[in-house]
């Protein structure tokens, strides 16, 4: 059995708050299958996942 490691969108740099929809959304242009997995929470191997680093900008300022 393949061990699936879950992807948590909250840590992805592509996951941001949308003021128009008043919720968090994925900024990537997802196709129909990817959008289904995103909405149902079954996107275990998201090809667009990039770990966000909110302190990256602060480190550059030092």
From TrEMBL:
Pfam families: DUF6472. It comes from the Bacteria. InterPro entries: DUF6472. Residues 8-62 form the DUF6472 domain. This is DUF6472 domain-containing protein.
């Amino acid at each position: 059995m393949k061990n699936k490691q879950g992807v948590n969108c909250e840590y992805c740099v592509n996951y941001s708050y949308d003021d128009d929809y008043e919720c968090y959304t994925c900024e990537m242009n997802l196709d129909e299958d990817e959008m289904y997995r995103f909405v149902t929470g079954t996107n275990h191997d998201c090809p667009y996942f990039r770990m966000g680093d909110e302190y990256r900008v602060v480190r550059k300022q030092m």
